[in-house]
Every structure is written in C-alpha cells, then in structure tokens.
C-alpha cells in the first residue's frame, strides 16, 4: 500500500515529538488499535455506515463526537494539549488535518489497546507506525514522556507503572489520513453483534472482520463494583441489563434511545470494560 504524503503541519508535528523522545526503536510487531463503539450514531447515521460511505476514520475535531472528553474545539482542552504536544504545528490546521487517537497495543490484548474507549477496534497495518507519535500517560494528563517509532521508551514506562487496567495504555496519534482500505488490517468486534445489523454494516467496510472474546457481565457481579464508578452507575447498569446480563449491544441500545445522560453511560461502559472483559478471564 502506498504511504500517504504528510502535509507540512503533520510532518512538523512528528518532528517536534521526535525531538522530545527517548529510548530505542519500537518492536516492529506492535500494532496500533483504535477503540470505539460500533453501534453509535453520527449525525443521525450509524457510524459504520458512514465510515463505509466515506472510506476514512475521522478525528473528534471533524465529528464532534468522542468516547472520552468533548473538548476538540478552539480554546478547548484537547486543542490546548495538542498545541503543547505538537509544538503548535496544528494551531492553524483544518479539522481534517489533525491526528486520530488510538493506542499502542503493547500488551497484545484481544480487545484492543484501549478498551476504555469502546468494545470494537480497528487494528492498523504495521506500516502506519512510521507516521505515529506516542505519549504516556494519556494526553489529558499533560504527559512529559513521548515517542516515535524509532525512539520510544514508553512501553517500559507503562509496564512498570501500577495503573488501572483501563488507564495503562500508551496513547498513539496517527498523523495524516486514516484510510480504511489502505491503513486498516481488520475491524475487531464483540461477539454480541454476531448476526445483527452491526455485523452487516461491518462487512461493507473495505477491511477484514474479526471477533474478540467479548465483554459480558452478570448483574450479580456488577453489584460488587459500586465503588468503581459509583452506586448510581451500577443502578443505571442494572436498569439497562437484560435477563441478568450486561453487554455492549444493550449499552448501545440505551445510548441510541436518548433517555440517558451520555456521561453516565460512559461510566457504565467503564464498569463493563473493566470487569466484564472475557479475554482477561
């Protein structure tokens, strides 16, 4: 696959991070993953259907949506930290020129490098590493440690840290366009979507479809984790659950219904992702 040319702001951003990086080269076998929820809507359209039509993965600056914080606008927190991390390279860039966020899946997790942000993930082709930058911890925490493919000690820092399972990822930034056909090796879905419209939409994408073991949590176990995100979150999860179980598809139905606060639902997902990851069992 041909490598897309980087424009001046993208090349400048990578060069700036390279100057802040330390360590040796990354293991070339490591992959970047981009976790997201595959059953959400964007502009009233199912997100996978929109991706199939456009053929690209877009950043929060373009979509106005996120599974993290919603601060991708001039003067917002994400705008400010991108300005710091990339030496102002993107300060006058168009939304579509800005980087896309994912994680370096340094632990080889079946559910992707940062399931905090969704049950599905795109696994990128290895050549995309050449136009990625990295930081640890997440950029929201004003990190001081950075890396690029040829100079990165962040894996050792992450492995040696004692963070929660949802917070131990090495953040990745993909500079330049992210094309589904050329840059994505596979979309990896939760098995709760087998035989559903989500699977049908996924099969229209120009990349392979794979499955991970899934996220599933019984209500009996859920009740033991009220301290993680709060008793009100556990109560909301119980209201969403069906037949004594919670999974990503049920959470997606709740999100699309519009009857629940999006930030509260995000915390329900955190509980499910943290304690219901069947690949970690």
UniProtKB/TrEMBL annotation:
InterPro entries: DUF3626. It comes from the Bacteria. This is DUF3626 domain-containing protein. It comes from Massilia agri.
């Amino acid at each position: 696959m041909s490598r897309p040319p980087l424009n001046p702001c993208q090349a400048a951003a990578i060069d700036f991070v390279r100057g802040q990086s330390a360590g040796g080269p990354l293991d070339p076998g490591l992959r970047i993953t981009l976790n997201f929820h595959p059953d959400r809507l964007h502009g009233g359209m199912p997100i996978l259907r929109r991706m199939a039509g456009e053929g690209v993965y877009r950043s929060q600056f373009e979509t106005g949506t996120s599974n993290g914080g919603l601060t991708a606008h001039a003067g917002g927190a994400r705008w400010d930290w991108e300005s710091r991390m990339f030496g102002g390279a993107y300060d006058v860039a168009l939304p579509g020129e800005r980087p896309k966020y994912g994680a370096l899946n340094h632990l080889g997790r079946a559910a992707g490098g940062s399931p905090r942000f969704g049950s599905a993930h795109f696994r990128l082709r290895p050549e995309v590493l050449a136009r990625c930058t990295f930081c640890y911890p997440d950029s929201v925490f004003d990190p001081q440690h950075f890396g690029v493919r040829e100079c990165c000690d962040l894996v050792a820092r992450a492995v040696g840290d004692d963070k929660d399972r949802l917070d131990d990822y090495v953040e990745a930034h993909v500079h330049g366009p992210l094309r589904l056909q050329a840059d994505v090796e596979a979309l990896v879905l939760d098995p709760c979507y087998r035989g559903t419209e989500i699977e049908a939409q996924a099969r229209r994408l120009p990349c392979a479809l794979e499955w991970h073991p899934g996220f599933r949590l019984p209500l009996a176990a859920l009740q033991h984790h009220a301290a993680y995100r709060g008793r009100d979150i556990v109560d909301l999860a119980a209201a969403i659950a069906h037949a004594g179980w919670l999974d990503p598809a049920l959470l997606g139905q709740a999100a699309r219904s519009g009857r629940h606060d999006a930030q509260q639902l995000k915390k329900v997902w955190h509980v499910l992702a943290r304690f219901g990851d069947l690949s970690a069992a």
